[in-house]
Specification:
The structure is a homodimer. By secondary structure, chain A is an all-alpha fold. In chain A, about 65% of the residues lie in helices and about 5% in strands. A 3-stranded mixed beta sheet of chain A has the order 1-3-2, with helices on both faces. The first copy, chain A, is globular, with a radius of gyration of 23 Å. Chains A and B meet through α2 and α3 of A and α2 and α3 of B.
Chain lengths: ~500, ~500
């Protein structure tokens, strides 16, 4: 970003302010990371206060009139720059972030923030007690707040501004259209699989000691390309990725001693998120251009590594002998093919986060449809548990035994908002297949390389085509640039049909 | 802090602003803690920037005109409150902190901050290369900056404002007087010890594996009263204590496998710092009243636990059998008395941080005198190495073999400032003896309790008399309240003479 900085001091001033905000956000992220990893339990009360202060401060700095003025002053300069130049991209993104923040009154933000804490606490009590009624009034207020939030923006559909917060540029109607198309092809596949004998995954449910699982996962992701001089892995209750700079992108993991796949695939998943942000153009450091574009594109990278690579036969041709070495008593006599089938077992299940890659998107679509209906006023919160169960019956053919395993299972609505919280998971799955197809088209040798433990061609292709751009393009722009296509369920369906047709002899 | 908050909204407003600053400072402390413990190496560049941003932000918020206005507006209210009420103490301390920050121009702070980084980097290169000339111009500028810093304040002696930054209220002349008195009694003791056969500390220099050392240290400090639900211990290059709230006060440690005493006593030392801040009145949370008053009082607490308790015979009557159990091959046949003598060996040495409790204060006084002479313009930086070596010859009877083990050994001048950087160590030693004497006077059974592993009487006395007050009183006020005395070398000298008279049969 040299040119403009030399010619326009206001651009430098803007960048300086944006970096200050980025620094505050990085400190807030560290406060959260520490809370999840190492903080002594009694530090919690002060930590909540500190996080709120820093987030409020970042919000104040972003919505400062000086930022608006600088953006206005730089408007005519921006127009003379190529659309995809770093400078113009930064101005475009900053304008978007400024407006997304500035349209929302500070008093609303404070109200929402307080309610999120209260609603989360009610949920944290209601879920183990299986008591939806306890959290119902809080969720009703969360719905009202979400509707109010949307009202600060112009929209075609009330869910659009909320979807925009996670997947900028996506519209409710477009998602509905794509999801309908996907569903039409997915349901018959799930039904066909259901008629076949189930795969045997008992080999995954022996006892796998925690320390060995963590050591194996860490060596695996290092071989793929996760660099411990620029990241680290720690244990948390729920795995996540976070970054404090382009050169410090950390992941966390959790391990179940009687379920090998949980820790293994969540580690690869979070590594995928991390590789994305580690691959950002270093020139984006400290600016909003660093990071990932949208929840959909971010998820496309985690799922690409977790599923299209990590649950593939070539991947385990390389890693399975090493896994057997790490767990000789558990896997020494289990053939690779049995392990491959075990990690790809499809089952109609109640819990989204445990779902296989075929049924996963059905879980997501249920949630997306329900949140849209709530926002539209067509579904009252009091009727939500029944609506949830009804959709599980119709879409997956099973009914939750309890709200704990039904409507209370995900934290998203109870701690964030209603609207725009789930579509990214399926958008990510769709894009992961589109991106992977493009990578293979460019480098047909990738699967063969993976089978010999070489990941650099794929990693480099992803860096060049996706990672380095950070938040420069919208998801739709990036997808079109990289694949020549718009969002399209065909590659995912082709991949799933081929892979599971083989596995289930369809 | 109920009364005034209810009657004066401006007090609430001030407290709110101070807590916001405290939150920013806590985040900055966490950025630093993470850098020293878990940060991947390549995160360093961004981390430096983030720390600078947060510290700048805290400074801006503190020197905001609104704080000054609130303090002015609350002045008359403050005068109606008892001097030692929480409210009036907070106003008094805030006024002091505000003025300490506001008198210094922002441009100077930025200049100093940049120079500190540069000077530190030059030192980090110069020290291993034993090349004082390399860092000399940087240290010359550090001296000029330190003198300029002092010039923003009214003073009797140019070192006073710089001493004030660490030990509020102490004056150069008073320190000189006390140090002279201490020195007069200390030198003959050191000389008398030097005529005796040296104590044998070889038992400490066997191989003590790191993990076992850390486990033992952790169990020891937990038994004394360090609560891991409100703190934790991690490994760093240089041990330190830091806090992110009254309920999250952490320590770090380092361990040498061939020197048992380093890790052991630095763990107890940092625990002493931590107990102080953990014992603050919970009502002080998020306000400047939380923390420790001064570097001297803070050091008095770490040294009290490290030396007066941790190097005493009763302490090891309880802990030595446990230490023998932890290291049976190393210590199984070493009698407790031999161990006690080993950990109290006195030797004329070159390195302050390795010095025993008798000679330690001589190291400190050399540094104090030299920094005062530099500030006064009586000692040029170019002559500093020779002046340093000359003082070691005259005071300790040994001459550094190199500047690395001489004038380049401490980071303080090269990364902080010249002036006020060292006196706190000796003030702390003096006060540790004064406080301990007062505790024993109140509870003569303390040594007997320590010999049976009971620390609660002493801990509770320290909480009630020192810890809970946080930064409410100045060091001088606190000392007078607790001991009825002002600063006085007699208790330390009485303790040292008694203990080392016995050890060295003087």
């Amino acid at each position: 970003m040299q040119t403009l900085e030399k010619t326009h001091p206001k651009f430098s001033e803007l960048k300086h302010r944006l970096t200050e905000i980025d620094d505050i956000n990085a400190a807030a992220s560290l406060l959260y990371w520490d809370q999840a990893t190492y903080m002594p339990p009694q530090g919690l009360a002060a930590r909540g206060r500190q996080l709120a202060t820093l987030r409020q401060l970042a919000h104040e700095k972003l919505t400062d009139g000086a930022i608006a003025q600088l953006l206005d002053d730089l408007d005519t300069y921006a127009h003379d720059l190529p659309y995809d130049s770093d400078e113009r991209s930064l101005l475009r993104l900053s304008r978007h972030l400024y407006e997304q923040a500035a349209r929302v009154p500070a008093s609303f933000t404070a109200r929402l923030s307080r309610h999120r804490t209260e609603c989360y606490q009610a949920w944290a009590q209601a879920r183990p007690e299986n008591d939806f009624a306890l959290v119902q009034p809080y969720l009703e207020e969360m719905l009202e707040l979400s509707q109010e939030w949307a009202s600060f923006f112009p929209y075609d559909h009330i869910a659009d501004p909320l979807i925009d917060l996670s997947d900028y540029g996506m519209k409710t109607e477009e998602i509905r259209r794509i999801f309908a198309e996907l569903r039409q092809q997915l349901v018959p596949l799930v039904q066909a699989i259901a008629t076949q004998p189930p795969l045997d995954d008992r080999c995954l449910h022996q006892v796998y000691p925690e320390a060995e699982q963590i050591a194996f996962g860490l060596s695996l992701i290092q071989q793929i390309g996760y660099d411990l001089s620029r990241g680290r892995q720690d244990k948390t209750l729920h795995p996540f990725m976070t970054n404090f700079s382009i050169n410090d992108v950390r992941i966390t993991t959790r391990v179940y001693e009687t379920d090998l796949s949980q820790g293994l695939f969540s580690t690869i998943h979070e590594m995928g998120h991390a590789l994305y942000e580690l691959g950002n153009d270093p020139a984006f450091e400290g600016t909003p251009l660093a990071g990932g574009i949208s929840s959909g594109v971010h998820e496309s990278q985690s799922r690409l590594w977790e599923n299209l690579v990590g649950r593939s036969r070539p991947f385990w041709q390389h890693f399975y002998p090493k896994l057997q070495q790490a767990f000789p008593t558990q896997l020494g006599t289990v053939p690779m093919e049995s392990f491959y089938r075990a990690i790809n077992k499809v089952a109609k299940s109640l819990i989204r986060t445990d779902a296989d890659e075929v049924t996963y998107n059905l879980h997501v679509m249920i949630r997306f449809d329900l949140e849209v209906a709530m926002l539209e006023g067509k579904l009252a919160i009091k009727d939500l548990p029944e609506a949830w169960n009804e959709r599980y019956r119709s879409d997956l053919g099973i009914v939750p035994d309890s709200d704990r395993n039904g409507v209370l299972q995900d934290v998203h609505w109870y701690s964030g908002r209603i609207g725009g919280m789930f579509q990214g998971y399926t958008l990510g799955n769709l894009m992961s297949a589109q991106f992977f197809e493009a990578a293979i088209a460019a480098h047909p040798g990738i699967p063969t390389q993976i089978a010999t433990g070489q990941f650099e061609t794929l990693h480099q292709w992803l860096r060049t085509n996706i990672y380095q751009h950070g938040r420069k393009y919208t998801a739709a722009e990036l997808l079109l640039r990289v694949t020549g296509q718009s969002l399209n369920p065909a590659p995912l369906m082709a991949y799933l049909s081929r892979k599971y047709g083989d596995l289930y002899a369809l």
